[in-house]
Structures are given as C-alpha cells and as structure tokens.
Amino acid sequence: MAKKTFPAFVLPMMAKIAEEPFDSPDWIFKVKLDGYRGIAVFDAAGKPHLWSRNGLPLEKKFPAVAKALSNLNLRSTVLDGEVVAVDENGIPRLQLLQRFQKQPTAPTLYYVFDVLWCDGEDITGKPIVERRRVLEQIIKSIRQPPRGPAPAGPARHSPAD
C-alpha cells in the first residue's frame, strides 16, 4: 500500500445522527462545545495552520490560539478541535465567540478532541479510542516534567466519556 502524502488540509470527521439513544463501551461521547470547528495542521517544519471545517484560515481570527499552537512541538500532525470563547467562569459561550471579531474581549481557547494524522501517518482509519490514546501521548509530550503539567493556556484537551 502506497504511503499517503501529508495534506495541507483535512476535512473533519463529522458526527452522525443516531436513530435512538444508546450506550456502548465501543463508543465515546465528547462534550458539546459551542464554538468553531478548528483543524490544526502542523507541516513537516512544525509550522501550524488553523483551518475552519470549510477550509478557511482561522489564524488571524484567533491570534491567541494561533500563538499557542505555534508553541507546540509537533510535525506532520493534524489535530481536530473546537475554538471557543469563554466567559469569566471559563464556560464556553457562542455569543462571545460571535462577537469576538468586532469586540475581542473574551479569552479564546482551542479544545483538541481528536488526532487525524500523527508524525506523517494517516490514522483516520483507526478507531477513535486508539486515536484518543495517541492524543493522550501527544498531550503528555507537551507537558514539561519535572515541574508538572504545562500551564493552562489557549490549547486544551477536550474531555470525553
């Protein structure tokens, strides 16, 4: 099988509507955040590009998120997440995000919930549970021992059940 060429943009995986509620150990459920879907693509040199789900650039819209991504030491990796604006209690508020372009007063964060490519390898064919394990390893590598976890900044790991 030929190795895939690393992409400049990847369409995000989209949720599918279920016929009825269910619970299964084979599925995870992510927290619903009111924000903009953001695909972070780190090229071979480690330069990140943040895209909307429609392939529009988001770096200029969300400079704090773009700066946080530029501090990550990732190469040939694609992260999938959500850009949110939070209120004074840290709760994502879509209204704050919608107003952000005209009145950038709320902090913006990037919650990462999936990894689609890692170190130049397409892992979209792997189950989400395996991709979440890869994401956990990425998150651990970002932390700076022995001082503990990286300080809370604009890039976050999105929890899942």
Mean pLDDT comes to 84
Got a strand count?
6
CATH architecture verdict: 2-Layer Sandwich
The top level CATH class name: Alpha Beta
Largest sheet: 6 strands, mixed
How far the N terminus sits from the C terminus, by CA atoms, comes to: 34 Å
Roughly what percent helix? 10-25%
What is the CATH T-level topology? Answer: D-amino Acid Aminotransferase, Chain A, domain 1
Unreliable sequence segments? 144-151
Strand content: 15-25%
Backbone CA Rg? 16 Å
Number of helices: 3
Number of structural units classed as domains: 1
Order of helices and strands: EEHEHEEHE
Walk me through this protein's architecture.
- The protein has 161 residues and is of the alpha+beta class.
- It has one domain (36-157): D-amino Acid Aminotransferase, Chain A, domain 1 (2-Layer Sandwich), CATH 3.30.470.
- Helices cover 18% and strands 22% of the residues.
- Strands 1, 2, 3, 4, 5 and 6 form a six-stranded mixed β-sheet that branches.
- The longest helix has 15 residues, at 128-142.
- It is globular.
Please give a quick description of this structure:
Strands 1, 2, 3, 4, 5 and 6 form a 6-stranded mixed beta sheet that branches. The protein has 3 helices and 6 strands.
Features:
D-amino Acid Aminotransferase, Chain A, domain 1, alpha+beta, 161 residues
Give the helices and strands, then pairings.
Blueprint: E1 36-42, E2 48-51, H1 63-70, E3 77-85, H2 94-99, E4 108-118, E5 121-122, H3 128-142, E6 155-157
